[in-house]
Protein backbone atom coordinates (compact mmCIF):
# COMPACT_ATOMS: atom_id res chain seq x y z
CA UNK A 1 0.00 0.00 0.00
CA UNK A 2 1.51 3.32 -1.09
CA UNK A 3 0.59 7.00 -0.71
CA UNK A 4 -1.26 6.52 2.55
CA UNK A 5 -2.40 9.59 4.50
CA UNK A 6 -1.03 10.04 8.05
CA UNK A 7 -4.39 8.80 9.36
CA UNK A 8 -4.25 5.68 7.19
CA UNK A 9 -0.63 5.02 8.20
CA UNK A 10 -1.76 5.12 11.83
CA UNK A 11 -4.67 2.76 11.15
CA UNK A 12 -2.37 0.39 9.28
CA UNK A 13 0.15 0.40 12.14
CA UNK A 14 -2.62 -0.51 14.59
CA UNK A 15 -3.93 -3.16 12.20
CA UNK A 16 -0.50 -4.78 11.86
CA UNK A 17 -0.11 -4.88 15.64
CA UNK A 18 -3.53 -6.47 15.98
CA UNK A 19 -2.82 -9.08 13.32
CA UNK A 20 0.50 -9.86 15.06
CA UNK A 21 -1.59 -11.31 17.92
CA UNK A 22 -3.10 -13.94 15.62
CA UNK A 23 -1.78 -17.47 16.05
CA UNK A 24 -2.20 -20.56 13.94
CA UNK A 25 -5.43 -22.42 14.75
CA UNK A 26 -7.26 -19.41 16.20
CA UNK A 27 -10.95 -18.69 15.83
CA UNK A 28 -11.18 -15.02 14.91
CA UNK A 29 -13.81 -12.28 14.80
CA UNK A 30 -13.18 -9.73 12.05
CA UNK A 31 -14.44 -6.20 12.73
CA UNK A 32 -15.87 -3.56 10.44
CA UNK A 33 -14.77 -0.11 9.28
CA UNK A 34 -11.79 1.59 7.65
CA UNK A 35 -9.29 0.34 10.25
CA UNK A 36 -10.68 -3.16 9.99
CA UNK A 37 -10.11 -2.99 6.22
CA UNK A 38 -6.37 -2.63 6.88
CA UNK A 39 -6.59 -5.48 9.39
CA UNK A 40 -8.26 -7.82 6.89
CA UNK A 41 -5.58 -7.01 4.29
CA UNK A 42 -2.75 -7.63 6.78
CA UNK A 43 -4.40 -10.84 7.92
CA UNK A 44 -4.69 -12.08 4.33
CA UNK A 45 -0.98 -11.34 3.86
CA UNK A 46 -0.06 -13.41 6.92
CA UNK A 47 -2.32 -16.27 5.86
CA UNK A 48 -0.67 -16.31 2.43
CA UNK A 49 2.87 -16.01 3.78
CA UNK A 50 2.59 -18.41 6.72
CA UNK A 51 -0.23 -20.72 5.75
CA UNK A 52 -2.13 -19.93 8.96
CA UNK A 53 -5.15 -22.14 9.51
CA UNK A 54 -7.86 -19.95 10.99
CA UNK A 55 -11.60 -20.00 11.42
CA UNK A 56 -13.08 -16.53 10.88
CA UNK A 57 -16.46 -14.90 11.50
CA UNK A 58 -17.27 -11.44 10.09
CA UNK A 59 -19.14 -8.60 11.79
CA UNK A 60 -20.74 -7.25 8.61
CA UNK A 61 -21.52 -8.06 5.01
CA UNK A 62 -18.84 -5.55 3.97
CA UNK A 63 -16.13 -7.37 5.93
CA UNK A 64 -17.42 -10.74 4.74
CA UNK A 65 -17.18 -9.55 1.12
CA UNK A 66 -13.69 -8.06 1.54
CA UNK A 67 -12.40 -11.18 3.29
CA UNK A 68 -13.81 -13.35 0.51
CA UNK A 69 -12.10 -11.22 -2.14
CA UNK A 70 -8.78 -11.66 -0.33
CA UNK A 71 -9.18 -15.42 -0.03
CA UNK A 72 -10.15 -15.57 3.66
CA UNK A 73 -12.92 -18.06 4.21
CA UNK A 74 -15.73 -16.71 6.42
CA UNK A 75 -17.99 -18.98 8.44
CA UNK A 76 -21.19 -18.22 10.31
CA UNK A 77 -20.54 -17.31 13.93
CA UNK A 78 -22.79 -20.19 15.00
CA UNK A 79 -20.74 -22.68 12.98
CA UNK A 80 -17.64 -21.69 14.91
CA UNK A 81 -19.45 -21.26 18.20
CA UNK A 82 -16.85 -19.35 20.23
CA UNK A 83 -13.93 -17.14 19.24
CA UNK A 84 -10.46 -16.73 20.68
CA UNK A 85 -9.97 -13.15 19.52
CA UNK A 86 -11.89 -10.34 17.84
CA UNK A 87 -10.04 -7.47 16.17
CA UNK A 88 -12.19 -4.40 15.55
CA UNK A 89 -12.07 -0.63 15.24
CA UNK A 90 -13.80 1.97 17.41
CA UNK A 91 -15.12 5.51 17.15
CA UNK A 92 -14.10 6.48 20.68
CA UNK A 93 -11.99 4.80 23.38
CA UNK A 94 -11.92 6.11 26.96
CA UNK A 95 -9.19 5.41 29.55
CA UNK A 96 -11.22 2.46 30.95
CA UNK A 97 -11.43 0.98 27.43
CA UNK A 98 -15.12 1.69 27.18
CA UNK A 99 -16.03 2.38 23.57
CA UNK A 100 -18.45 4.02 21.22
CA UNK A 101 -18.85 1.97 18.05
CA UNK A 102 -21.31 1.94 15.17
CA UNK A 103 -20.08 4.82 13.03
CA UNK A 104 -20.60 2.45 10.13
CA UNK A 105 -23.81 1.04 11.57
CA UNK A 106 -22.31 -2.39 12.28
CA UNK A 107 -22.32 -2.31 16.09
CA UNK A 108 -25.08 -4.92 16.53
CA UNK A 109 -23.19 -7.74 14.84
CA UNK A 110 -19.93 -6.37 16.25
CA UNK A 111 -21.27 -6.61 19.79
CA UNK A 112 -22.60 -10.14 19.26
CA UNK A 113 -19.20 -11.23 17.91
CA UNK A 114 -17.20 -9.42 20.63
CA UNK A 115 -19.39 -10.95 23.34
CA UNK A 116 -18.62 -14.39 21.91
CA UNK A 117 -14.86 -13.82 22.07
CA UNK A 118 -12.36 -14.58 24.81
CA UNK A 119 -10.59 -11.37 23.93
CA UNK A 120 -11.62 -8.18 22.13
CA UNK A 121 -8.74 -6.06 20.86
CA UNK A 122 -9.46 -2.64 19.38
CA UNK A 123 -7.26 -1.19 16.65
CA UNK A 124 -7.42 2.58 16.13
CA UNK A 125 -5.68 5.79 15.18
CA UNK A 126 -4.99 8.39 17.91
CA UNK A 127 -8.05 10.54 17.10
CA UNK A 128 -10.22 7.85 18.69
CA UNK A 129 -8.73 8.23 22.17
CA UNK A 130 -10.83 10.50 24.42
CA UNK A 131 -11.04 11.34 28.10
CA UNK A 132 -14.84 10.99 28.18
CA UNK A 133 -17.14 9.31 25.66
CA UNK A 134 -19.83 11.29 23.86
CA UNK A 135 -18.36 13.79 21.40
CA UNK A 136 -19.00 11.16 18.73
CA UNK A 137 -22.72 10.57 18.25
CA UNK A 138 -24.03 7.43 19.96
CA UNK A 139 -25.53 5.10 17.32
CA UNK A 140 -28.69 3.25 18.36
CA UNK A 141 -30.08 0.53 16.10
CA UNK A 142 -33.88 0.49 16.17
CA UNK A 143 -36.67 -1.51 14.57
CA UNK A 144 -38.40 0.51 11.78
CA UNK A 145 -41.86 -0.32 13.20
CA UNK A 146 -42.99 2.46 15.53
CA UNK A 147 -39.76 4.40 15.17
CA UNK A 148 -41.37 7.72 16.18
CA UNK A 149 -42.63 6.09 19.39
CA UNK A 150 -39.16 4.70 20.04
CA UNK A 151 -37.74 8.21 19.58
CA UNK A 152 -40.26 9.49 22.16
CA UNK A 153 -39.08 6.84 24.63
CA UNK A 154 -35.45 7.78 24.00
CA UNK A 155 -36.30 11.48 24.43
CA UNK A 156 -37.92 10.71 27.80
CA UNK A 157 -34.87 8.69 28.84
CA UNK A 158 -32.52 11.53 27.93
CA UNK A 159 -34.72 14.03 29.81
CA UNK A 160 -34.59 11.80 32.90
CA UNK A 161 -30.79 11.80 32.68
CA UNK A 162 -30.52 15.60 32.37
CA UNK A 163 -29.67 15.28 28.67
CA UNK A 164 -32.52 17.46 27.45
CA UNK A 165 -32.65 18.90 23.93
CA UNK A 166 -29.92 16.59 22.65
CA UNK A 167 -30.52 15.85 18.94
CA UNK A 168 -31.73 12.37 18.00
CA UNK A 169 -31.18 12.07 14.26
CA UNK A 170 -32.27 9.19 12.03
CA UNK A 171 -29.15 8.31 10.01
CA UNK A 172 -29.34 9.01 6.28
CA UNK A 173 -27.22 7.80 3.39
CA UNK A 174 -27.55 9.09 -0.16
CA UNK A 175 -30.69 11.02 0.81
CA UNK A 176 -32.47 7.95 2.19
CA UNK A 177 -32.76 6.36 5.59
CA UNK A 178 -29.69 4.21 6.29
CA UNK A 179 -30.47 0.51 6.68
CA UNK A 180 -28.27 -1.86 8.68
CA UNK A 181 -27.31 -5.40 7.67
CA UNK A 182 -30.42 -6.45 9.64
CA UNK A 183 -32.54 -3.93 7.69
CA UNK A 184 -33.04 -1.81 10.80
CA UNK A 185 -32.60 1.96 11.23
CA UNK A 186 -29.92 3.89 13.12
CA UNK A 187 -30.66 6.86 15.38
CA UNK A 188 -27.61 9.00 16.14
CA UNK A 189 -27.74 10.60 19.59
CA UNK A 190 -25.61 13.76 19.98
CA UNK A 191 -24.88 13.68 23.69
CA UNK A 192 -21.61 15.73 23.86
CA UNK A 193 -20.47 14.09 27.10
CA UNK A 194 -21.69 10.79 28.55
CA UNK A 195 -21.17 11.01 32.29
CA UNK A 196 -23.12 7.86 33.19
CA UNK A 197 -22.60 5.23 30.49
CA UNK A 198 -24.33 2.50 32.50
CA UNK A 199 -27.52 4.55 32.93
CA UNK A 200 -27.72 5.30 29.20
CA UNK A 201 -26.95 1.69 28.34
CA UNK A 202 -29.53 0.12 30.64
CA UNK A 203 -32.11 2.80 29.82
CA UNK A 204 -31.78 2.20 26.08
CA UNK A 205 -31.90 -1.58 26.53
CA UNK A 206 -35.23 -1.20 28.37
CA UNK A 207 -36.93 0.45 25.36
CA UNK A 208 -38.76 -2.17 23.26
CA UNK A 209 -37.91 -0.76 19.80
CA UNK A 210 -34.20 -0.51 20.55
CA UNK A 211 -32.18 -3.42 19.22
CA UNK A 212 -28.70 -2.37 20.37
CA UNK A 213 -26.66 0.73 21.05
CA UNK A 214 -23.02 1.49 20.29
CA UNK A 215 -21.68 1.67 23.85
CA UNK A 216 -19.30 -1.23 24.47
CA UNK A 217 -18.81 -1.19 28.23
CA UNK A 218 -16.21 -3.50 29.77
CA UNK A 219 -15.91 -5.53 26.56
CA UNK A 220 -12.54 -4.36 25.24
CA UNK A 221 -9.43 -6.03 26.71
CA UNK A 222 -6.72 -4.11 24.87
CA UNK A 223 -6.55 -1.12 22.52
CA UNK A 224 -3.72 -0.79 20.02
CA UNK A 225 -3.36 2.83 18.95
CA UNK A 226 -1.17 3.33 15.91
CA UNK A 227 0.74 6.43 14.87
CA UNK A 228 1.73 7.60 11.36
CA UNK A 229 5.39 6.71 12.08
CA UNK A 230 4.37 3.07 12.55
CA UNK A 231 4.68 3.01 16.33
CA UNK A 232 1.84 1.58 18.43
CA UNK A 233 0.74 2.38 21.96
CA UNK A 234 -0.99 -0.31 24.00
CA UNK A 235 -3.87 0.82 26.21
CA UNK A 236 -4.87 -1.65 28.89
CA UNK A 237 -7.59 -1.52 31.51
CA UNK A 238 -6.57 0.24 34.72
CA UNK A 239 -5.87 -2.11 37.66
CA UNK A 240 -8.87 -2.42 39.96
CA UNK A 241 -7.73 -1.76 43.53
CA UNK A 242 -9.63 -3.36 46.41
O1 LIG B 1 -19.98 0.38 12.61
C1 LIG B 1 -18.79 0.53 12.48
C2 LIG B 1 -17.79 0.10 13.46
O2 LIG B 1 -18.18 0.17 14.79
C3 LIG B 1 -16.39 0.64 13.24
O3 LIG B 1 -15.53 -0.28 13.84
C4 LIG B 1 -16.14 2.01 13.83
O4 LIG B 1 -17.07 2.93 13.29
C5 LIG B 1 -14.71 2.51 13.54
O5 LIG B 1 -14.56 2.62 12.17
P1 LIG B 1 -13.24 3.26 11.53
O6 LIG B 1 -12.14 2.26 11.74
O7 LIG B 1 -13.60 3.42 10.07
O8 LIG B 1 -13.00 4.57 12.19
Automatic annotation (TrEMBL):
Q: What class of enzyme is it?
A: isomerase
Its catalytic activity? Answer: aldehydo-D-ribose 5-phosphate = D-ribulose 5-phosphate
**Sorted UniProt keywords:** Isomerase
Q: Which SUPFAM superfamilies match?
A: D-ribose-5-phosphate isomerase (RpiA), lid domain, NagB/RpiA/CoA transferase-like
User: GO terms for CC?
Assistant: cytosol
Residues annotated for substrate binding in this entry: 32-35, 88-91, 101-104, 128
Q: What is its EC number?
A: 5.3.1.6
Q: Looking at the keywords, is Isomerase present?
A: yes
Q: Name one GO biological process term.
A: pentose-phosphate shunt, non-oxidative branch
The regions listed as transmembrane in this protein's record are none
Matches recorded under InterPro entries: NagB/RpiA_transferase-like (IPR037171), Ribose5P_isomerase_typA_subgr (IPR020672), Ribose5P_isomerase_type_A (IPR004788)
Quote the HAMAP family the UniProt record gives.
Answer: Rib_5P_isom_A
Query: According to its UniProt record, which protein family does this protein belong to?
Result: Belongs to the ribose 5-phosphate isomerase family.
Assembly mode: Homodimer.
Functionally, this protein is described as follows: Catalyzes the reversible conversion of ribose-5-phosphate to ribulose 5-phosphate.
Tell me what this protein is called: Ribose-5-phosphate isomerase A
The source organism is Paracoccus chinensis
Amino acid sequence: MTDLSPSDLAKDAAARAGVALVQDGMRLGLGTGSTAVFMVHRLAERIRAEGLRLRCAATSRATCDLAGQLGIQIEELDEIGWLDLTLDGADEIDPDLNLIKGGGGAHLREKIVAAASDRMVVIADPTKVVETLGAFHLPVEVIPFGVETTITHIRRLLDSLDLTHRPILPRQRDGRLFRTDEDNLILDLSLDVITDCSAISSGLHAIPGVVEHGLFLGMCDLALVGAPDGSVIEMTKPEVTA
